[in-house]
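Morning. Coffee machine broken again, so started the prediction first thing and wrote up yesterday's gels while waiting. Chain of 228 residues, entered below exactly as on the submission form.
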Amino acid sequence: MRYRYEHKYLINPQTAAVLRGRTVGIMRPDEYADENGGYTVNNVYLDDRYDTFYQAKQLGHYSRDKYRLRYYNGDLSFIRLERKHKDSMLNYKDTLPITSAQFERMSSGDFEFILTEKAPLWQRLATIYRLRGLRPTAAFTYRRETLTYKPGNVRFTFDGHPKPFHNSPPVDGNRQAYPLLLEVKYTGFLPETIRRLLNGLPLVHTEMSKYAIARERNYCHTFNPPVI
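Came back before lunch.
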């Protein structure tokens, strides 16, 4: 398990264009990018009956978790269960591949089967299920463009607005129409070469959560709330 740094910035289209121009010849597109230079991220977020993980974000808890089911470009042949743990600017992820049948059961609110699963991430989720219940809370998608730099394992991600599954984000030419967030992620250190790319840009640091924004602004498919 290794922590990674993650910094989030609000960014407008003009700044995004300048930054992309600076990265030419230095950073490379993610290997999964499609012909439009990015890919679609599909998420189903999970929470307990008390909305513990959502409320931890809203209350600004220093240390918090979130759980989600994630796949890409609408392709259900490879789906992951993810736990993302955050300590201030440091993050790490536990991930586990799941089957489409498991995905369908969890996204419909059926979690009973996880009680017999043996992997540590399943067992962690099963404990939450036993103690506080578990449910899907929000399903949404967004476009992501990723640029990478090997030293420091650096990733720039440009993320578009969350949308419900049935209303995919628009693509404008070879770029998404409006980057919502720039996320700068790295392991251990941020190389000076990359740091200079960000110098002088009007970046607004934010703790925005796409999950929270999707729920607050109804940018997602929501599920029936539980009876507490």
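The two ends are 35 Å apart (CA to CA). Going to sketch it on the whiteboard this afternoon.
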